[in-house]
Fold this sequence. Notes:
This protein is mainly beta. Among the domains are: 6-103, Immunoglobulin-like; 111-211, Immunoglobulin-like (Sandwich); 219-316, Sandwich (Immunoglobulin-like), CATH 2.60.40.60; 330-434, Cadherins (Immunoglobulin-like), CATH 2.60.40.60; 442-559, Immunoglobulin-like. It is built from 3 helices and 49 strands. Strands 37-38-45-44-41 form a 5-stranded mixed β-sheet. Strands 1-7-6-3 form a 4-stranded mixed β-sheet, with no helix packed on it. Helix 1 (557-570) crosses helix 2.
Amino acid sequence: LAPAARKNLSIAEFTTLPGSRFPLESASDADIGANAQLSYTLSPSEYFTVEEENSNSRSKSLFLVLTKPLDRETLPVHRLVLTASDGGRPSLTGTVELVISVLDINDNAPQFNQSVYSVHLLEDALEGTVLVRVNATDPDLGTYGEVIYEIDTIVPPSASGIFSIDAKSGDIRLTDALDFETVAFYDLQIKAKDKGTPPLSGHCKVLVEVLDVNDNAPEVWVTSLSVPVPEDASVGTVVALLSVSDRDSGANGRVRCAVWPAAPFGLVSTFAGSYSLVLREALDRERVSEYEVEVRAEDGGSPSLRGRRGVRVPVSDVNDNAPAFAQAVYTVLARENNAAGAELARLWARDPDEADNGRVRYSVWEGGVGGVASAGGGWRPASSYVSVDAESGRLWALQPLDYEEVQVLQFEVRAVDAGEPPLCGNATVQLFVVDENDNAPALLPAGSGGPGPGVSGEAASGALWAWAAWGAPAGQVVAKIRAVDADSGYNAWLRYELWEPRGKGPFRVGLYSGEVSTARALEEADGPRQRLVIVVRDHGEPARSATATLSVSLVEGTEAALAAAGSSLSSGAVLRAGLRPAEGGAAATGAAATTNVWLVVAICAVSSLFLLAVVLYGASRWAPRAGVLSGPGPATLVCASEVGSWSYSQRQSRSLCVADGAGKSDLMVFSPNFPPPPGPAAKETQPEPPALLDTVSVPHCLASRPFPTPLLPSVPFLFCSFTLFSPLCPFSLTPWAGGEGIRDEPPGPAGSGFSFRM
């Protein structure tokens, strides 16, 4: 056998082809002949066999033949036993161990332990988080087995910067933020390669699934908006279409919606993610002209996120409001004799609508209750006195106003807007003409007031005549000056003054009554005639006056009576001279008889009037107070003035009186003297009635009309009718209930009043 007991061989894997022969050292046998003939056997192997080569040479060559390619990764070392046997009996053998080392080549690519890696990662994972570690092995040796990792491809390609891999360890890390709503799934192809030449590589797949977190608030979008909304839009009108979405998924993407404020709009879900903003209540632009509606959305995540969207909904105007005046009734005071075109008042009507719907024009409404009866008996509309500016509502006079023609002018002013259809509102204007002292007192004709003291003459010329008997006592009325003033109130309150003669003359004039009476007993020394100049003044500012000249003839008593009777029979005829009876003649006898008859008639008439006055006085004093015009205290005078009404005088009286013979409606109203309450205090507080009467004037608007109950005290009603008549007081006092009044509204709660007719 060979000297060495082991033989080492190195054979490269795969590159050595089957059939390759590797020489071996032959064995030797010291024997000769048949004992020296050697044969070889190899231990069983699928990769190798042994062959001998016969040649002409004395020695034979021995070869190890490769029958199958070697694979170092399968069996890196082959250990075989080669046995040599001789031909002797018994044969002897020798062995040698063949150690065959398989040389490595780069014939193996790196292999991953998994072909697919699945990773679940929350989208809010931080940068640097390790997703997974991949592992690949290469059975080759040396540099052939060293593996390098890299990301081959990423799907989607836009995510190339999101992940990174460690080339040596195979750790895959997160290098950027994830967004589930952008990419929810990533596919990474990982390659592992060795350092062979050429390098071999292996591949695996890493599937990254991003898990959603509630990081997106709901979003609300307005897809359609129908504005402005008419204020008369019906309930259910669709104002806007909304789209609501949440990029999250699952419960994080389920959204609940609501609208704030809850009225007058609401949300109606049409289909998934779509809503309609509808009208739930009626609109009123004058109350709210624009709404700021907020649609709020909230998802079902934990914690939940909210989104909102503001919607501005303007309300368009419709003509649903009529112009409205600040007052239903305007009271306007205007002085008479005002200049034409003078501004009397400004009226203003508010229309809360806008644009043309709120543009107001004014006019005096001819269809309303307005106008006044003219002095000629015709009817004049209010538009002939006043006009209103269509744009500004300024009320101005078309002509100077005359209190003696019209005291109260009531009419309606209409305000109409420019809407379609137009709407209108009305206001009543009560124009009170305030009296100015523009009329001087006027003397009345003598004898026009009925029986009275003897006086005759022409009032127009201011010359009057009267007769007085010598020896007449002081205080005897010899004449009465009758005058009237067309004005009212203080302007028509007359006073009489004796202008001539001044000093202590035989006559005096009642300050307010106009009665000319004797200041002392008349004597023959006073002469046959007295000339009196009487000035009649009103109380206006400035005061106006008229002058009357009264000639008083002093005659015998019978002549004065005949003169007075003649004046009564002739009803104001002028008596130029007194009657002188003829002594001892028939004329004297007839005159005396006539005088006696008239004296009897006069005495009876005066007595009757006195008794009637006493009865009426008693009835008004102790009867129920239905006939009393006012209670105790200051008298109330109903009269138009600059301040509407005024009270005059603290004096106490029950008299109602106008100037004798006047057709003018002047009225005096005084409070009566009620019986004082029992006790000493009553006597101290009860004032004494004055001797003189105070006369005032009542506006024509109140004359010959019933006074409504609010002007009278609440006293028990007396169903009766009093007729007061005397030469000085031609009044009729008639109770009434309901019916006509001086105002348009009904009477007071009692529904009753008194009518004074003259």
